[in-house]
Structure formats: C-alpha cells, structure tokens
Amino acid sequence: MRERMLQPAVRRGQRRTGMLDSPSWGAILILLMPPKFFTVDQANRTLPLVRRIVTDVVSAHRELQELAASYSDLDPKGPTVAEPRAELRERIDGLTNTINRYIGELHELGCLFKGFEEGLVDFYALKGARPVFLCWKLGEERIEWWHETDAGFAGRQPLATLLD
Length: 164
Fold this sequence. Notes:
The protein is α+β, with helices and mostly antiparallel strands. It has one domain (34-163). It is built from 5 helices and 5 strands, in the order ααααβββββα. The chain has helices at residues 2-6, 23-32, 40-73, 82-109, 159-163, and strands spanning 111-115, 120-127, 130-137, 145-148, 157-158. It has a 5-stranded antiparallel sheet with strand order 1-2-3-4-5. Helix 2 (23-32) packs parallel to helix 4 (82-109). The protein is elongated. The two termini are 35 Å apart.
C-alpha cells in the first residue's frame, strides 16, 4: 500500500507485487476481510489516496469500454482480423486485471467501490450500533453524504442527519 501513497497511479508496463495481485486470491481475501468502520474524519483523511485510485479506475474503465467496442466492431469471420482481435483481447484482459487491482487497493483501505460511471465509493460507518455507509463520489471534495446499507446512492442523506 505504501507504494500507492507515493505514486499517483501504477502505469501501464509497471508491475506491483502484493497480496491482491492475483485476481482470484484478491477476491477471496476481500470476502474474508471484516469491514473496517470509519469515522467521518478518518474517511476524509483517506480521500486523497482514494481519489487517485478512483480516478485511475474510472479512466481505465472508459478505455476498457472503448477497447470492447473496437473488439465488437471487428468481424470475427473476416480473414484479416485474427491478429487485431487477439491484440485487442490481450489489451482488454490486461486492463481488466489492472482495474481489478485498483479496486482491490480500495478494498484494502476498507472502501467499497460502487460505480464506474460516477466513481462511487462507500465507507462503512456506525450510526449508534447500526452499520451505515458514508458515501462519496469522484468530484466531491469531502464526505458529505451517508445512506443505509440497503438504500444505495438514491438514499443518500446529508451528513448532518447522521450526526443527529
């Protein structure tokens, strides 16, 4: 994790080593990790790092969508598309793994990534003894919203109502 704090992003061609480098192990470990509960201040202190990671996820996802569209546009029966399709498939697979690693980094921090389009992230918090989510999306300066764990983005409420 320290590596991520020193660099704004892991770029193409660079290799990180860590627990979540393997997508299958990463998924298993994330499922086994108990949730980390944040105070509003703790969540806000993680935002500079979370913002960099989410920016990378959203950017990589856009690129992935473009590659997938290009891949779909190639006629699989065309005589000259085998090599371009293979190259695109390799780039798509690599970018998918990169996105999964970024999301794994968010999970290592204790965040839940919720949306590629807006860059949504939830942080577990407590309202009394009840788990809730502090809610943030890319472009917001700080945590200003929360919602029940079953409410989702549409159920966002101003942070002041959490503190009542």
